[in-house]
Amino acid sequence: MSTAEEQFQTAVRGVEGVWPATPSMWSYSSLSEAEECPRRWMLSRARYPTIWEREGYPPRPILAGLIGNTTHRALELILGTLQARGCVSVSDPSAVEALRDIGGFSRLLADTVTAELETLQGNPRAADQLASIRERLLREVPAIRERLQATVSRTPLQPPSDDQPITGTQPSRGPLARGSHPEVKLRAEGLRLIGRADLITLDDDGCVITDYKTGAPSEQHADQLRLYALLWSRDNAINPGGLPVRRLVVAYATHDEMFDPPSARDLETLAGTLSKRIAKAEGNLSPPPAPANPAPDVCRNCNVRHLCEDYWVAARAMSAREASSQAAMFVDCEAVIATRNGSRSWLLSVAGEGRALLRTPTETPGFAAGDSVRLLGLTLSANEDSAEVILTMTQFSEVFVLRERAQQPGVLAGLG
Fold first, then answer.
1. Does domain 316-414 have CATH number 2.40.50.140?
2. Among residues 249, 231, 247, which one has the least CA distance to residue 239?
3. List of residues 6+ apart from 227 with CB closer than 8 A
4. Which ranges of 192-290 does DSSP label H, i.e. alpha helix?
């Protein structure tokens, strides 16, 4: 049973939640997110029983993320299959048969696209977009296949030693056998840190840790691998002999980047730094609500910005007229629906702007005259004759009706 302190209410009608507990173990991504914006971390991971039964706020589907997830699903299956057959590379004679058994690249990608789309079932923010998302994701399959083939062709695999069985799976928290192992879970209990390495190849002299990335190169990728090196050094369950990391590899679609592993002294320094970061992050998260860090780079892709009051307060510092000078940019808007202007157009009251015209894709956009609303992902333009601000909803825009009429008539927040 949740206590009153754990429960919270947002300004959006029908959205109440239960704050998340501080995690017992941290990952690289969760710690980085908590540091960037503690409020976003908490709002994203809270429970919303009035919306759905899953943990966290329903994520807004983003094509780039779906492509990345699909690529990783397929890559995990391919590497696991090759390793289970004892293949040393995709050019190994037995690799052709192994890939045929899982349907080849085309069937594999069709299955992984289906599996990825299944994760969107029951997500209220994806319900009206499933057909469009499926179509867009399927159009990306040829490019995904090309990137997968290029990545796998560069991946050297090492079969298990003669005295180790070929299973294709990692033993449950037991010593890792010599050979290549996809999707290895790492834990450092004393540091309260966990990770999941895409591929670890282990021999008698140590291991190579490889992480596959579908996006553009980033310094954070090397930092994440250094964390994995620390976890490997502290994970007595799968690395009881204390074998070292020999090399760190970030595998992109077009090339690999290799890094020397941290030294023993570097690992100690990193462990101390991470302990301090965790302590600071947890200090920011308790008691709720955690502080917010509203900034363009932080808020632009935030999944819960419509629930964050600090985001809308910060947005009011931007002049609506200044935002409207940038034709066709994307904006969020907090406004009062003044009146219907036509079958698919409405007049809004927006602070600093007076009235703005909103064009909607349907005659029933989810609000009524008199409602205070937060609208996400609108296109923005201006009438050249009257300088009237024109906002247009697309199929990807979102409408959130507020509980009460806004004290002041809204704001435009530019997303760039």
1. yes
2. 231
3. 28, 193, 195, 270, 274
4. 219-234, 264-285
Joined together, the tokens standing for residue 347 give 């007049």
Give the Å distances, CA to CA, from 87 to 82, 96, 106, 146, 238: 5, 10, 20, 21, 23
Q: What is the mean pLDDT of residues 46-66?
A: 94
The pLDDT value given to residue 79: 87
Distance CA 291, CA 122 (A): 30
pLDDT band at residue 173 using 50, 70 and 90 as cut-offs:
confident
- pLDDT by residue (tens digit) across 310-355? 999 887 765 444 454 444 478 899 999 999 999 999 999 886 567 8
Pairing mode of beta strands 193-203, 330-342? unpaired
How high does pLDDT run on average in the chain?
87
Domain spans, the chain: 63-153, 316-414
Q: What is the pLDDT of residues 155-171, one digit of tens each?
A: 888 876 655 544 444 55
Q: How far is CA 226 from the centre of its chain?
A: 21
Evaluate the CA torsion angle 40, 42, 45, 48 in order and state its sign.
negative
Contacts of 400 (CB under 8 A, 6+ apart): 12, 13, 15, 306, 373, 374, 375, 376
Largest CA distance in the chain: 80
Question: Do β-strands 206-212 and 245-251 pair in parallel, antiparallel, or remain unpaired?
Answer: parallel
Please state the pTM of the whole predicted model: 0.87
H and E: helices and strands count for the chain: 12, 14
Q: What does the alpha-carbon distance between residue 250 and residue 255 come to, in Å, rounded to a whole number?
A: 9
Distance CA 39, CA 375 (A): 20
Tokens 């009206």 appear where?
128
